[in-house]
Amino acid sequence: NESNGAWCYTTDPAVRWQYCSVPHCEKDPSTLDEYTEYKITWTALRDPGELVWQLAEIEVPGLLGDAKSLPTLGYTGNYVASIVDGSTNIYLMGGYSTGNPNDQLAFDGSSAKFVMYQEAVTDIPGMMISPLHTKLSVATGLRIYVANNNPGADPVKYRVEGREMVSGTHLKTRHSNKCLVVTSVSDGYRITLAESCENDQSNQQFYMNELGEIRVKSLPGYCMDPRYGLSSSFRANYMIPCNSQEFGPASHQ
């Protein structure tokens, strides 16, 4: 609230406080990082005893690039209301909801409520989002529109983390030479054979991390079932939640 700028206390006994220089990160590319995927976690509600989290809409202001791979932050991206432009894959953590249609309400541009139920008081609820446009982006904030009821369930503190997804590759079967693809079915996410191999389809782009987990770029937090691989065993061809769901070193993701 100081009109002359930010100030701080000093370690000099003769100088109690002084103004300090704080760079304006939004206009300094050297202080920004570009990512293709983000994790948002809620760390506090208005009512500390509430286990239901709800909101009307989320926007992630920032810079959205024009291409999938850009060498520097001096690219020809534009400031947009939300870098989550269009459809996005959403994976909930530390809680649950009524399903994907409810989850999409958080980013659909309407005032329809997204509701999430925290599993336990000790859990930190949140979500991983992976916009299907796959463009690099720079998040500069988080804008939350609260719901019109139950103010105790309004998020009041949050944390945003990002990562650049690793490149993927096609996986083909030995006998048919067709590419694998992950599709959403009524009982989960199934690995099937694609009619054609498409380089721009993230649900055909697989990769393995240092933990040996095989992931697909379109489905954050899910891996091939290590118990079965691609055998003909029951549910072998379904993606399951990964053992290492939380963010860590990029090589583990």
Our estimate of the beta-strand percent is 25-35%
Order of helices and strands: EEEEEEEEEHEEEEEEEEEEE
Largest sheet, spatial ordering of strands: 8-11-3-14
Q: Determine the N-to-C terminus distance.
A: 41 Å
What integer value in Å does the Rg equal? 21 Å
Mean pLDDT over the residues: 77
The major β-sheet equals: 4 strands, antiparallel
Defining key terms:
253 residues, mainly beta, 4-stranded antiparallel beta sheet, 1 helix, disordered C terminus
Written overview of the protein:
This protein is mostly beta strands. The longest helix is centred in the middle third of the chain and has 5 residues. The strands form 7 sheets. A 4-stranded antiparallel β-sheet has the order 8-11-3-14. The protein is built from 1 helix and 20 strands.
Briefly say what this structure is:
With 253 residues, this protein is an all-beta fold. The protein is 2% helix and 34% strand.
Spell out the blueprint of helices and strands.
Blueprint: E1 7-9, E2 17-19, E3 37-45, E4 52-55, E5 57-59, E6 62-64, E7 78-80, E8 88-93, E9 95-96, H1 100-104, E10 114-118, E11 126-131, E12 137-139, E13 143-145, E14 155-163, E15 180-185, E16 188-193, E17 206-208, E18 214-216, E19 222-224, E20 238-241
Antiparallel strand pairs: 1-2, 3-11, 3-14, 4-10, 5-13, 6-7, 6-12, 8-11, 9-10, 15-16, 16-20, 17-18, 19-20
